[in-house]
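Support case: D-ribose complex. Customer-provided input:
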Amino acid sequence: MPLTVAIASDHAGFALKSEVIAELKKLGHEALELGPTDTSPVDYPDYAVKVAAAVTQGQAALGILVCGTGTGMSITANKVHGIRAALCRTEFEARMARGHNDANVLCLGQRVTGAGLAAEIVKAFLATSFEGGRHAGRVEKIRQVEAKR
Ligand code: RB5
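Agent response - structure generated as follows:
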């Protein structure tokens, strides 16, 4: 099923973001590109919140964020209510993040993960559905933690 995927980066993730957008299109998905438009230095939190908002407001089914390591993007995105962002460096982590954690944002690090592997991670993330079952109660507990904040 074609998905709309919100995607953004900072300057350190800009090149990988372009590769990921090409992969999204190849897979038949729509990329909602939220910047930046060049490699001028920017602050990753400004872009993490754009993708988080697109996902929580329903403009996109899922989000992808790319910075140098993926760490800053994941820390920021996970501060937004309703976001479960996963920093993935392997296909296995991407499958588990969707299947077990119902992650709705994938974070990647351009300085860590090459374009070929990133494409496989993206493919796995988008192709995997939340398994529910025993995992549903655990994700509900995440929501309860969030509700107290
Ligand atoms: C930018 O230099 C770098 O700090 C940023 O892209 C990211 O890796 C932060 O987590």
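Residues 4-147 form a domain with the Ribose 5-phosphate Isomerase B; Chain: A, fold (CATH 3.40.1400.10).

Case will auto-close in a few days if no follow-up is received.
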